[in-house]
């Protein structure tokens, strides 16, 4: 009786090994030239190099040449819609405050309720119109500047914010235009600074 056995961790595989034929030997440490040190597979057919299971990069299904982030034109719809909703909510709260203040000497009655509701709806519509117009101007300037420069970066953001402020206050004379431009420049600059904060600290790269 032959008591010899294959070396530890080796398996004579294939159907030939089952029926006595000579088959190739598989090792727990090497499979087809791929090192598998430290693994303890159940079967040589389940040997997998763990390095192939690690994804170091993000995976996207995009057309060739497409960007991984949405452009300004795509973001314009979200920006305008969000601004209108925010303006409506803020205006409604402000209208409720003004309505309660203006009718504080009136007893709770139907006329007072109607007056408060009218103030809420008026303020909500006014603020929604204002913020929506600003968002529309900002998005239009941003898209136009991006197309003209052929690049998307913080210069577009600051330039669009400055032009938006100037255009929004264009009916207030030169001083009003200057003030609007400064406000737009300050707000867009703060947003650009916030957007680049991690990059400025040197922690993560920025993606536009």
From TrEMBL:
How does the entry describe its membrane topology?
Multi-pass membrane protein
**GO biological process annotations for this chain's record?**
protein import into mitochondrial matrix
Write out the annotated subcellular location: Mitochondrion inner membrane
What are the record's GO terms for cellular component? TIM23 mitochondrial import inner membrane translocase complex
| Keyword Membrane applies | yes
Signal peptide start and end residues: none
For this chain, one GO molecular function annotation is: protein transmembrane transporter activity
Q: Where are the transmembrane segments?
A: 75-96, 176-194
Q: Quote the InterPro entries the UniProt record gives.
A: Tim23, Tim23-like
Q: What UniProt keywords are attached to this protein's entry?
A: Membrane, Mitochondrion, Mitochondrion inner membrane, Protein transport, Translocation, Transmembrane, Transmembrane helix, Transport
State the similarity comment: Belongs to the Tim17/Tim22/Tim23 family.
**Oligomer and partners:** Component of the TIM23 complex, at least composed of TIM23, TIM17, TIM50 and TIM21.
* Record function comment: Essential component of the TIM23 complex, a complex that mediates the translocation of transit peptide-containing proteins across the mitochondrial inner membrane.
Q: Check the record and name the PANTHER family matching this protein.
A: MITOCHONDRIAL IMPORT INNER MEMBRANE TRANSLOCASE SUBUNIT TIM23, TIM23
Q: Which NCBIfam families match?
A: 3a0801s02tim23
Q: What is this protein called?
A: Mitochondrial import inner membrane translocase subunit TIM23
Which organism is this entry from? Tachysurus vachellii (Darkbarbel catfish)
What lineage is this protein's organism placed in? Eukaryota, Metazoa, Chordata, Craniata, Vertebrata
